[in-house]
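User: Predict structure, ligand adenosine-5'-diphosphate.
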Amino acid sequence: MEQGEARTAGTSAVAATTMKHARAKASHEAPLIEVKDITKVYGEGESMVHALRGVSLSISHGEFVAIMGPSGSGKSTFMHLLGCLDRPTSGSYRLAGQEVSGLTRDELAAIRSKQIGFVFQSFNLLARTSALENVELPMLYAGVAQKTRDERARALLKQVGLGERMDHRPNELSGGQQQRVAIARALANGAPFLMADEPTGNLDSASSVEIMTLFRHLNRDNGITVIVVTHAPDVASWSDRMVTFRDGLIISDHPSGEASQ
Ligand code: ADP
Ligand code: MG
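Assistant: Predicted complex:
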């Protein structure tokens, strides 16, 4: 193995991501996310739902943001748009300086696979597959060579504190451990940007703290930009900034240390 490859695949897998991210940051001053007046309408006629009614928001590289708000307020819709899983009905979305609101589904998929890591409430791990293989899977799809895949997946699992559990299947892991596997998998494409929709929604409070501590660490020590949707204020308090939705609009946006009222 090349020495450089060993370094990248070793304990510094996330550090390599961070360096890539730092270079990207140096090359342009655009915010990571710049959303202007986006709307999202589902359905037509009588069944039409205005899920987002004109949302503008800017998020810089390296921020740790919590998206809050009651059920039905548009949080998941907003995350789907930010994550390039869907397109707005109107408005502009620039991701790392590139306008993405008018891209085709294939073009959006290409952006997702390189720039964004997703974490879901229900972990979405493959059940009959080890933690190691779950983390390797996105790299398999991306055409990464087997040896590099294996080394990088091992490094990421160590990074999230699962160095001793790599061969375990999801049903042999606790909820918090499964979510850590999902976070390692989300980082496997080298994305500098993690999006998590209710990542602690299926976890007890101790495991929630464990997962938010990990996000805090990845953000502070590795420069990963983190956006977490939650309706739980104690979960949101781990972030640096809280953005609150209601009825498809942002009703507040302030540093997490400040009172929301
Ligand atoms: P939250 O994540 O804050 O609970 P959502 O973004 O899921 O809110 O939903 C916002 C609104 O859009 C709700 O009224 C919801 O019923 C509606 N909605 C969400 N997804 C769809 C969809 N695929 N089709 C139709 N309506 C939807
Ligand atoms: Mg939701």
